[in-house]
Structures are given as C-alpha cells and as structure tokens.
Amino acid sequence: MKEESLKKIxxxxxxxxxxxxxxNLMDTIEVSKQQQKIRFWNxxxxxxxxxxxxxxxxxxxxxxxLRQESAVLSIFKNIPITPMFVAITLLLLYMIxxxxxxxxxxxxx
Amino acid sequence: MKNNPTxxxxxLIRKAIEGDTAAFRQLVYAxxxxxxxxxxxxxxxxxxxxxxxxxxxxxVYHKLNTxxxxxxxxxxxxxxxxxxxxxxxxxxxxxxxxxxxxxxYMLPSTSDTSxxxxxxxxxxxxxxxxxxxxxxxxxxxxxxxxxxxxxxxxITRFKTSKVKVLLHRGRGNIHFQLKQLLGDDLNYLL
Lengths: 109, 190
Hints:
The structure holds two protein chains of two kinds.
Chain A: H1 3-11, H2 21-66, H3 71-77, H4 81-108
Chain B: H1 5-17, H2 21-43, H3 46-63, H4 73-92, H5 98-104, H6 117-130, H7 133-144, H8 149-156, H9 160-182, H10 186-189
Helix pairs in contact in B: 1-2, 2-3, 2-4, 2-7, 3-4, 4-8, 6-9, 7-9
C-alpha cells in the first residue's frame, strides 16, 4: 500500500467522543476541585490541632518548670540566648517552608 | 506564527492556568477526538477508552501549571494518554474480545459498488482493532497525528528501531486486515 493511500486511510481513523463528553468532564473537574479543597483543609486542620495539642501542654510544663529551682534546670539557664534564638528562628522558618510546600503540593495534585 | 496550533494551545493553556475554564474547554475540544483514537488503539473498547480519557483530562487540568511550554502540548498530552492507558490496562487487565467489536461496529455489506464515508470509517476502525495495540498506536501517531519518529519515541518511550519495526509491521497488517474485510472493494478506500 502506498504511503499516501495509507495516510488517507489513517486520517479516517479518528473516533469521536460522545456529545456530553466535555460537559461531563467539566463536572468531574469541578467535583475534583472541591474534593481537593476539602482534602487540603483536612490535612491542615490535622496539623493545626496536633501542633496545638503538643504546644499548649509543653508551654505550660516549661512555664511551671522554669519557676522551680533545680539542678537539672540550671543547665538550661546556662545556655546562651543568642544561639538558641537563631536555632528557634531557623526551626520556625523551616516549619513555615514545610507548610508552604504542603500547600503547593496540594495545589498540584 | 499566531495561527500555529502550538501557539494557539499555549495561549489557551495560559488562560486555563489563570482559571479560564472556557479556554480549557476549547483545549479539550481541539484534542479530544485524536486522544480518544489513541486510547482506543491501546484499550480497544471505545467506551472504556472514553472513561479513561475523562481521567486523563482531569489529570491534565490539575497538572497544567507544570507544563513547561518547551514542546508541543500534544506531545505532552499524548504521553499522558498513552501512559494512563497502559497503566489502566495493567491495573484492570481488560479482556477485550476482538470478535465482539465486529458486532459493535455493525458492518454493512460490501456488495454495493461504493462504500459510503461513514462505512469506510467503520471498516478502518475494525481493521485497526485487529492490530496489536502497539502497532495501531504507532500507526495513528505517525499518520493521524503526523508526528515524527523522534516524537513517537518520546511519547511511547519505545526505541527508534522498535518504532520503525512497528510501523513496518503495522503497514503490512492494516493492508492485510482491510483486504480480508473488503476484498476487491479495498480499491474504493484508496
């Protein structure tokens, strides 16, 4: 079979989708967009609640412990403030970066 | 330059990324039929292929912002179509009976002196159904989508030699299948 004839034949091999293909597709996309929003909020909600559950008692405990005089706590009191401040700031920045990354990943899913 | 399909696609993609759903609709409208044809090459069943194509376009919608604008949109789209179809084929292990497709296409008799355009399409579909998925896929990419062997390689991840072999076998097999179906009436198609 000649190339031109084959090309002509193959040009006729296109199939057509059903009439409501695009409408169904757009509906599916809308649903998936909604699901994605809910999915992100759920994961964010989980992170937020878990962080709060961990942070609140930790802060309370720390506050309570710092008011007490003990040999163990005096070690913490001797730690210089500046490196601690830098370390905590870096940790916070890292956490913010993680949350932004999570948000971006969720957008791209 | 503006009328180039690639540039048109780029424009529509940019709009769709900004949230213009009408632009995305246009993009789908322009490529849905050829994409379905490619999906049918692999899946063989047009109904299942259309369902898979829905998933493909949902995926495309969500991944549109990762499109790099370095190659044609069609190359990117067809690669997603081909990958998704092969994945689905592996996952669900479709067992498509080729014998049933003949009934599905309701072939007319070839005794008429000429074969109508719509009937021609049915015979061509049926002939393509009889080919191996890889052969009909490569034939469609080469002749229907008019892609180069390099582009076919990047879509299918087949080696150049494999693409050439599949093209060669596909040409022979489609001719054989059409000859089987139409006999001397094959000349009306050519």
